């Protein structure tokens, strides 16, 4: 069981001058994919860093699998926008780094890494160095590095933000495929409304800073009712009336926050 729960979480920085989060209650179910969208600076990354154990709430509690988060742990893997691969290590060496840190025996490591290489479609590039790979391939290595640890929880902060539009689409489609084959509890931060609707089971919309939860949109029930899963291409899903409707709804809600129309 690897749910994530924010229980009345507030977070301030710098002796309280900057209030980033204000009384956030949010529950992400085991194996659920939840995306957070919200205006810049509303506290999205702060939510993720709290779940990762890189930061701690000023008040309230963050729980992963019913245990309060007190430090980073192997049950949670984090993927950031900047891939942060080691340039002097090959694809395989980059992917197996976390397993080495866990003192996993060499043969087991090899099997796990090869499975991840296969899953993420990097066969043939095992010995390549990051500078020999495109941005999309580098990000796939970063995602494989997270998956190989077989974490119960994946925390992804704008993981495709630095990619060009076409590569981004390929990565989004791949993540959906991976999520179906190997579901994990995912907290996904994005500025992309379409990306959120395409990937997530639910989309949480945050208010302007100090970030509070404004609304949670249930995408999964509509995705299932409207049979989005029949389509493997993002553009076909994005064409569906039900998709457009959800996207527009979230856009409006976000625009209210940006322009302050709701305040
Ligand atoms: N370590 C820190 N020290 C001081 N202030 C911080 C720190 N981390 C975040 N903040 C502030 O907290 C607020 C929320 O930041 P956060 O990065 O969580 O927002 P965000 O929603 O992820 O923003 P963006 O969409 O622009 O990435 C911002 O005002 C930011 O300046």
TrEMBL record:
- The ABC transporter domain extends over 4-233
Q: Which PANTHER family match?
A: ALIPHATIC SULFONATES IMPORT ATP-BINDING PROTEIN SSUB, TAURINE IMPORT ATP-BINDING PROTEIN-RELATED
Matching InterPro entries:
AAA+_ATPase, ABC_transporter-like_ATP-bd, ABC_transporter-like_CS, ABC_transporter_ATP-bind, P-loop_NTPase
Q: Which CDD domains match?
A: ABC_NrtD_SsuB_transporters
UniProt key word Transmembrane: no
Keywords of the record: ATP-binding, Nucleotide-binding, Transport
Q: Species name for this entry?
A: Xanthobacter flavus
- Give the protein family: Belongs to the ABC transporter superfamily.
Q: Which Pfam families match?
A: ABC_tran
In terms of PROSITE patterns, this protein maps to: ABC_TRANSPORTER_1, ABC_TRANSPORTER_2
Q: What is this protein called?
A: ABC transporter ATP-binding protein
Q: Which GO terms describe its molecular function?
A: ATP binding; ATP hydrolysis activity
Nucleotide-binding as UniProt keyword: yes
This protein's source sits in the domain of life called: Bacteria
